[in-house]
Amino acid sequence: MSVRVLSCKICGKLFQSFGAGYCPGCADEMDKAFVKIKEYIYDHENATIVDIVEGTGISEKYVLQFLKEGRLSIEGAADVLRCEDCGRPISSGRYCSNCREKLANVLSSAVEGKKKSMPAISTQGKMHGKYGRKN
Fold first, then answer.
1. 52 domain residue, yes or no
2. Do strands 14-17 and 4-7 pair parallel, antiparallel, or not at all (unpaired)?
3. For residues 11 and 25, is the Cβ–Cβ distance under 8 A?
């Protein structure tokens, strides 16, 4: 696994990343915010984004980020979130179900095309006649 130096998506600080887009401080803050939001939603099942922001004091930016990551799904999110491909309203994630399916098909066909263009590898071993013989 390679280490990269990235700029945190939230605070902008440079940090060594093993794949996350957030520095350790912001990642910890986001985890705490997520737990608080989940607890709030558990107690207020029909909460909207505005309700969550007002009830928890957590930034709308975090709530929207969790929705886009697919970590949250709440009523009324479709009023704010749109599919990044076609623009349809969605309740969580980045793409609607139709666009996700299209993307999956494109990726699947690309993988299949790559497999077909690779040379065939023989799975049968070859026997070497001179090994183990005394001549």
1. yes
2. antiparallel
3. yes
On whether the CB atoms of residues 55 and 44 are closer than 8 A, the answer is yes
User: What is the pLDDT confidence band of residue 131, given thresholds at 50, 70 and 90?
Assistant: low
Q: Domain total for the chain?
A: 1
Separation between Cα atoms, residue 122 and residue 39, nearest integer Å: 56
71 located within any domain: yes
What domain range is 70 assigned to?
25-111
Tens of pLDDT, residues 24-78: 898 899 999 999 999 999 999 888 889 999 999 999 988 988 888 888 888 777 7
Let me know if residue 118 belongs to a domain.
no
Alpha carbons 79 and 81: distance in angstroms, whole number: 6
Report the candidate in 100, 79, 103 with the shortest Cα–Cα distance to residue 91: 79
Q: Looking at the domain assignment, is residue 86 inside a domain?
A: yes
Which pLDDT score is estimated for 38? 93
Greater confidence (76 vs 85) lies with: 85
DSSP letter string, 78-106? GGT-B-TTT--B-SSSSS-HHHHHHHHHH
